[in-house]
Design brief:
The complex is a heterodimer. By secondary structure, chain A is mainly alpha-helical. Helices cover 76% and strands 0% of the residues of chain A. Classes of the chains: A mainly alpha, B mainly alpha.
């Protein structure tokens, strides 16, 4: 253990030191060039290492994954569109897609709504209570999905009727006189998926609250005053004055949460591993890769996921350009 | 919450921030009962699961597996049986101690090494003019959204060819690659708010870009560097997917993988050990989070998206 700790410290020091030396060398190379060329080349040398990392870890693999998606399980033979057609025709993958869609529809909306409610309501408390309540809501952001699995395992725990329940939800249900329920196995109306979604909401509402709270606080006081003088009640002030002014932040939170939801993996993997019809795209990818050892199918799933994110990417880039132009 | 306001200001330099001196100033209506009750209920719902985990982790095996943790509140006799035994067992026998160190060995290099690399790129994007600058930066913005799933199959093949799959550098290098676009984005947004005149005058005084970067821009960007560092540290510490793919279970497994495989996945482990293990896995990120909340918020608001 001491060996590992020492090794880690050495890695960090050597790694950071190597980066410093690398840039010093790159800078020297630029300075060796004749005057005009030095200024031309230098910016590219400064961004080169960062771009090398991006190219190696994202751009090149993206192309390679696209290619693999048309090859067989071991990437040794071309199979055309077979991976896509067999996935899309299989009933279990259709269920997986439908579940992912449910996550995408439900989670971001609830996260935005609860985050906004917390932001607006906590803003009216005394500062001490405001910051304390916000820290509590924000805290789960620091907890891993595996940790959340342990935490919520204690809520959803199920034991057959007659034994004392150690899961909170079943303890409440049995105290009210009902039979205990194996919550994560209830497939009716995808209720088990909903219980998994609650875990993600629990983790994400804090993020939404923090961003929206900053937006709510930056709404100019005089616009609220003007509305009050005109005799508007609190409800219409909120919906007609506050919401339009923070709409940009609402969209940012919504889009960010949506991207996270599309890639959801760990909560499902830890709680059910996709059983009882709770599977989602991220978990299916992992199982194709590590249980079925099917590179082709895994790659095809990623390509579909990638295609689904393209509209969001386009939206982000457009948004960024607009903001930059305003500057 | 002034910190969040300044954060927003830093994150979106384009917008003029019209701050109110105090959020309550001139606001006729104070917190009504409705606001208080809703906030109280939400906070209660949010904290109860964590309290349950915390209390269970100190209970002996028989207690934890036969009665709910809430019974502690009306059975004071059970209080005397609470102990740290579960933690000792989880740390040693479930090998979470080893996994804790492994996670540090992955998270620390993955947090600190990319900072300088990203800062140099951010500097070039902010303070240097060159053809293709806008296009190259827009590429970074779009890569923010790209799911890192896209990288796993090809990178895993390369790692197997190089025979480094399962080692620490295999994981932290991957995390550096996946975190790079966010790092450049956060740092560049922050550097764009630094006064241009200062950098100009350094140039007039004869300072090279290299000197300006190390003596002026890097020290001034410390808040953004810290924001990214905390963000990346929490991200890597809590990561399960990248760890499963590039390390997997075994001697090098990080804490998320060890907790999942050595405790949660074992039917015989029992809630008392699972919760103790869970708390061991959370204690460091929670401490970092509580201590550095201000910076963390800045990181979130500056780079809201990560692929």
């Amino acid at each position: 253990m001491t060996y590992k700790i020492l090794n880690t410290l050495i890695t960090v020091i050597v790694g950071v030191g190597a980066a410093v030396i690398l840039y010093w060398v790159l800078n020297k190379i630029a300075e060796l060039l004749p005057g005009r060329w030095e200024d031309r080349i230098k910016p590219y040398l400064y961004i080169l290492p960062a771009y090398a990392a991006l190219l190696f870890y994202l751009v090149y693999p993206a192309v390679q994954t696209f290619v693999f998606s048309f090859a067989n399980a071991t990437s040794t033979e071309w199979v055309g569109w077979d991976n896509y057609t067999s996935l899309l025709q299989s009933e279990s993958f259709q269920d997986t897609l439908f579940n992912t869609l449910l996550w995408m529809i439900i989670v971001p909306v609830v996260v935005v709504a609860l985050g906004l409610a917390m932001a607006v309501l906590a803003d009216r408390l005394k500062p001490r209570w405001e910051s304390m309540s916000k820290t509590i809501i924000f805290l789960p952001m620091a907890i891993s999905a595996v940790g959340a699995g342990v935490v919520w395992g204690l809520i959803y725990n199920y034991r057959p009727e007659g034994r004392e329940q150690i899961g909170l939800q079943n303890a409440i249900v049995t105290a009210l006189g009902f039979d205990p329920v194996a919550w994560l196995q209830v497939t009716t109306l995808h209720i088990n998926s909903l219980f998994l979604m609650i875990m993600l909401m629990w983790a994400q509402v804090g993020f939404s609250m923090v961003l929206l709270s900053a937006a709510v606080k930056s709404v100019p006081e005089d616009t609220l005053e003007a509305a009050r003088i005109d005799g508007a009640d609190e409800r219409s002030i909120f919906f007609r004055v506050v919401v339009p002014q923070i709409w940009g932040s609402v969209l940012t939170v919504y889009v960010t949460t949506l991207i996270g939801v599309m890639k959801i993996f760990d909560i499902v993997y830890v709680m059910t591993n996709g059983g009882f019809n709770t599977n989602v795209v991220g978990n299916e990818f992992f199982n194709q890769l590590f249980s079925n050892f099917n590179n082709g199918a895994a790659a095809a799933i990623v390509v579909m996921l990638m295609i689904a994110t393209i509209p969001i990417m386009w939206y982000q880039v457009r948004n960024f350009r607009r903001e930059e132009l305003m500057a | 919450m002034t910190s969040t306001q300044t954060t927003m200001a830093a994150a979106t330099p384009a917008k003029t921030t019209r701050k109110r001196a105090s959020s309550r100033e001139g606001q006729p209506q104070k917190a009504g009962w409705f606001a208080r009750i809703v906030v109280l209920v939400l906070c209660f719902l949010w904290i109860v699961p964590i309290v349950g985990l915390f209390l269970t982790s100190f209970r002996p095996r028989d207690d934890a597996n036969s009665t709910g943790w809430w019974t502690l509140f009306w059975t004071p006799s059970a209080w005397s049986r609470l102990s740290f035994d579960n933690y000792v067992t989880a740390w040693n026998e479930a090998e979470l101690g080893n996994a804790f160190v492994n996670t540090l060995a992955i998270a620390l290099p993955a947090t600190f090494i990319p900072i300088l690399v990203a800062a140099f790129a951010a500097y070039a994007f902010t303070f240097m003019e060159f053809p293709g600058r806008n296009f190259l930066f827009l590429a970074v913005v779009s890569l923010l959204v790209v799911p890192n799933y896209i990288a796993f199959v090809p990178i895993l093949r390369i790692y197997s060819d190089l025979q480094i799959a399962g080692t620490f550098p295999a994981v932290w290098l991957a995390h550096i690659g996946f975190g790079m676009s966010l790092a450049i984005y956060i740092l560049r947004n922050y550097m764009a708010t630094l006064p241009k005149s200062l950098i100009e005058s350094a140039k007039i005084d004869g300072a090279s870009h290299f000197q300006t970067f190390f003596r002026l821009v890097l020290p001034m960007s410390v808040p953004a560097l810290a924001a990214f560092a905390i963000f990346q540290f929490l991200w890597v510490w809590n990561d399960l997917l990248v760890a499963l793919i590039f390390v997997g279970p075994g001697d090098n497994a990080p804490i998320t993988v060890a907790l999942r495989n050595n405790l949660m996945g074992q039917a015989g482990a029992g809630q008392h050990l699972v919760t103790a293990g869970g708390f061991i896995s959370m204690i460091l990120p929670i401490a970092v989070f509580l201590a550095m909340q201000r910076f963390f918020v800045r990181g979130l608001t500056a780079g809201a998206v990560k692929g």
